Amino acid sequence: MRIAFFGTGAVSVAYLETLLDAGFEVTAVVTKRPKRRSRNGRVEPTAVAALGERRGLKVLTALADLDLLDFELGIVVSYGRILPDQLVNTHPFLNVHYSLLPSFRGAAPVERSVLAGGVAAGVTLMRLVAEMDAGPIYESVPVAIEDFDLSTAYERLTTAGCALMRDWLARDDDWITTAAHPQVGTPTYAPKIVDADLIIRSYESALQGYRRHLLGRAYFYCDSKRVRLLRAHVDEADSSFPLGSIVDGKIQTARGMLVPELVRPEGRSTMSFADFLRGSRVTAIGTSPG
Fold it and tell me: Which residues form the Formyl transferase C-terminal domain (predicted)?
């Protein structure tokens, strides 16, 4: 079966490598135009384009250059664009989505699952349709990501997703047209992460603050400056101090205490929270610069 692969993000590289290493015939790689510039000022190709070029594949950055007679199946993984209906209607297109659909349709399913404690975490192989992430499902595989940081969660999901894609493509029946089934259940959605999703709030539980920090960009304010929270754990004990108070190196929350281990204060290098406290006089955290 001749395959056209559509991908741009770093996640896509593992899927293209899986296809090539398993001996599937990839006739074209479609990726976004390069934007990132190297230190010498040259525009560098996407990681997917670089892999395709190394492996001698036809690499395209414009859909108009795609020859519809050149492939029988399209596979889309982190392409970063919505394919036009007129293209999707010409061939079957498969997509790998990082949630147990119909939960967490949208742009940030992994991040939203991490914030929810690993709810609906998994990989779904589906067929593309016009409505976003609403296509019929071939298979969904749960993947445990609770308490893992975002990078590790992506690694676990990608390992499972590559295996799922490879196993289905290896089938010799007419599964593409017959094996998919409609999504069942009420859809939920996963919008992109914004700054408000990253703020540690003392009026939430310590567990929720811990989950925010797993995204890798969470922060709180001390003396009107941002402090990035790089590593932390939860102490379920409570104190009698007000919410947000720093007590023996622990932050009092609405339920339990959040214990920062590593932080990066604004304009400074990474340090332990204990060292940060020794060099400042802060006694509480805030959620705004004021």
Answer: 217-280
Give the rounded percent of residues in the chain with a pLDDT score beyond 90. 91
pTM (2 decimals)? 0.94
H/E run at residue 208: helix 206-213
Reference 130, options 77, 170, 101, 87; nearest CA is: 87
Q: Go through the chain and tell me how many residues it has.
A: 290
Could you tell me which CATH class the domain 2-178 is placed in?
alpha beta
Closest CA relative to residue 110, chosen from 215, 199, 200, 197: 215
DSSP 195: G
Tokens of 64: 């108009």
d(CA 117, CA 130): 30
What CA–CA distances, in Å, run from 30 to 22, 206, 237? 20, 44, 53
**How many other CB atoms are found less than 10 A from the CB of residue 290?**
6
CB 4 within 8 A of CB 28: yes
**Domain limits, the chain:** 2-178, 195-278
CATH architecture of 195-278: Roll (3.10)
pLDDT digits (tens, 9 = 90+) for 90-143: 999 999 999 999 999 999 999 999 999 999 999 999 999 999 999 999 999 999
pLDDT (tens digit, 9 = 90+) per residue, 62-99? 999 999 999 999 999 999 999 999 999 999 999 999 99
Q: Is residue 161 within 8 Å of residue 96, measured between CB atoms? A: yes
